Model the fold of this input.
Amino acid sequence: MNSEQFFDKCGGYRKLHSFTYATIIHVATIDFCNRFISYKVDPLGKTVGQMVGAARSGRQNIIEGSERSSTSKETEIKLTDVARASLAELLGDYEIYLAKKNVIPWSKDNIDKQNIEKIRLAPFENSKDQMHDYWVYFHETRKLFANWLDSADDTIVANTLIILIQRTMAMLNRQIQKQGEMFLAQGGFREKMYSGRTEVKTQNKTNPENPSCPECGKPMIERIPKIGKNQGIPFWGCSAFPECKGTKQKH
Done:
């Protein structure tokens, strides 16, 4: 096994629509707090700090999870879930903001809600100047929602962000499910390391003249028990152990 096979692809988060939505939400939340939450009602900045912090966590944990995917699928899943949970926290903040103003979140029949939900993002294509080109893509993408996000009506902006947060959370739920399926199918980094090390050890010990396993037909290797009544007595054991437990006496 080549050592490169231990590592899955990592990064690539800029191609995730969930990441672009999370970035729009992060930037828009900073703008929302600057425009609509007065220092007079939030003198210590706790509400603003918590909302911006939750928006930032939603975005940054997508990045970290993507970058950690090569060596830890478990960590990738956990960080993606942290991103989803952070956005859920932010969603609650926007709901409370509207509730304090005696405003009900838009229903499914609201025309603005329907128009926002019809919008679909174009894919971001990799390029040689990825960072620069991504931010060009980002600002073009944000324009799709500008009529609502740039509104002078705070309730329109809050409702728009609620819709975008809900969409992003749904995407992250699907990512978590897919990541879990990949982990079950391929295993994690430690499992690949163990499998690779076992394969190398087997290749080093296997001789073409060794007998074939009577159970599965794979090459056998010499094994020497370290404990038990047969301690120190060599025997043939299947190279596919523990999947195959075939053995043969060595004469």
About this structure: The chain has eight helices and three strands. The chain has two domains: 3-190, 206-249.
